[in-house]
Amino acid sequence: MPKKSLRVAACQMHADENIEKNTYEIIDRLNTCARKKVDIAAFHEGILYGYSNCPDFWSTLDQTRIEKAERQITHVCREKGIAAIIGSTHLEDEHRYNSLLVIDRDGTIQGRYGKIHLAGEKWCEPAQHLPIYHLCGVPCCFLICHDIRYPELVRLPAAAGAKICFFASCESSVTSEHKLSAYRAMPISRATENDIYVIMANAPADPLDINRAGSSHGESKIIHPNGNVIAEAGIFTNEIIIRKLDLHQASRNIALRAVNDITRLREWMKDGVKLVDCEKEHS
Hints:
alpha/beta
């Protein structure tokens, strides 16, 4: 039977290059979310490593520190019965990706979503995988930061079945005023143009160093399929926003019309949907 509702959280927290400290803070928030009966908790882009773009950091990084952190987080997910989306980095055939680790509530790693459209990162490569993963039985898709500017990365998975898009970001700082209006508009647009929920987890601004690397402008959001923001964090705050989602409201109607309406784009859209990797739900 399809799930009717889901409690989700966007966890907004400060992070830096201290992987072990970040891991401790993530686990603390997962424990808090579990106590509040959250089903899925989302964290921002690169939260495990403070979204560092420093060449020295990447040239000296011991990947086993990331792997150990991921194991610790996965253990907590299994122990507490909570699913999580964690900003991380991984290697495949010696190629590094800026990625999200997607963990279901039983500790099963459903897979990874790698950032497709990079925003100047020199330490990683663009990923080629557009997946749907099931979390708590619900089909979900994913974006990382600059990906939000490419609507097809949500349109195609939504047409293929995704009801929730988890958007992990670490955008420019609050001082980039010319970008802030677009930053607000784009995740709202991705929700309403597809009739699905969008859960945005962004890094907060640092009040002690407004342009610190790995900080952003906060305002993590939970967005209804009609485009209304139903929960939003502050700019500087470490906080968790939680809402119960009525999954019947995620009709995917607009995404489906884009594929099924009789227009000259119809067959082209259908071919695009075939590019989505619809992973099977784990029993």
